[in-house]
Inverse folding.
């Protein structure tokens, strides 16, 4: 009996790779996204000196903001968050809420005199127009301007950045150095327009992954269904440094996945989930069917 031939055939059969199942492919995608998303922060690791992993001290002053994803009708989050959040923390909150891994370039611009689309139309929550109304050009003619109050860039890029031309911004600032309270402030004279407009007319346009054009509009929505303009700044009885998700709609807010109706898991609304995310204990991932929350692999 030729045993070597039988063993050879058996070994050959065993070496044929098993076709990947959708479940295996999905787990591999999640694992890759988690590794890539956390790799950029490995040099910083959770520490009191890291603006991307550190929450501010608890406060009783919070503001309710709407985070509206452009280009996909009705995808938004409405969140109550502490006024002492920096834009570095705000950036991490956006990644957490939409399940993005943080591997793409991003920028944020703070605008005054924001005009919104109708809250009852398809572009509800999106910014229609922005910028100070008029100014005099070199020839003495009135022209409309749309300069930003702040050009907010990642840590260490205030001196030079290929992300944005500074010609139409008043000031470039590190995201770790700008507080939410410097944009929306209980004292209107101290908001980003220095009293030029109401808090409800301040807005932020956040862009992520420039090639894919993921844009998030951050505003106080003036429709009563989303925000009561008589209570622009909410004072809580108990100090907190955690965000509270109050409303949401999830549809197609994902990377590398076709738009589909999505759901948010119960874990997404747990009280301390964002603190755990900041500590790398959990991560979020924009799957095809839901915004997934994954525990750190042991």
């Amino acid at each position: 009996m030729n045993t070597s031939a039988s063993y050879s055939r058996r070994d050959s059969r065993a070496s044929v790779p098993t076709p990947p199942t959708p479940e295996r492919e999905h787990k591999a995608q999640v694992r890759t996204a988690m590794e890539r998303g956390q790799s950029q922060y490995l040099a910083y690791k959770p520490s009191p000196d890291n603006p991307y992993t550190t929450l501010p001290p608890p406060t009783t002053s919070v503001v309710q903001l709407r985070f509206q994803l452009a280009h996909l009708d009705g995808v938004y989050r409405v969140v109550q968050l502490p006024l002492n959040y920096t834009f570095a923390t705000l950036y991490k909150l956006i990644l957490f809420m939409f399940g993005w891994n943080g591997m793409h370039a991003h920028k944020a611009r703070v605008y005054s005199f924001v005009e919104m689309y109708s809250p009852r139309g398809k572009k509800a929550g999106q910014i229609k127009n922005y910028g100070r109304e008029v100014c005099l050009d070199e020839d003495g003619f009135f022209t409309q301007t749309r300069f930003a109050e702040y050009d907010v860039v990642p840590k260490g890029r205030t001196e030079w950045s290929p992300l944005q031309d500074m010609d139409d911004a008043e000031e470039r600032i590190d995201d770790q150095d700008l507080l939410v309270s410097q944009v929306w402030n209980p004292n209107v004279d101290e908001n980003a327009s220095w009293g030029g407009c109401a808090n409800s007319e301040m807005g932020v346009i956040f862009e992520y992954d420039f090639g894919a054009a993921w844009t998030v509009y951050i505003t106080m929505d003036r429709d009563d269904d989303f925000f009561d303009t008589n209570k622009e700044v909410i004072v809580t009885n108990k100090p907190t440094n955690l965000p509270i998700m109050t409303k949401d709609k999830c549809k197609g807010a994902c990377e590398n996945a076709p738009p589909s109706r999505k759901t948010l898991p119960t874990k997404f609304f747990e009280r301390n989930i964002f603190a755990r995310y900041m500590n790398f204990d959990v991560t979020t991932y924009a799957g095809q069917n839901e915004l997934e929350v994954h525990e750190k692999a042991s």
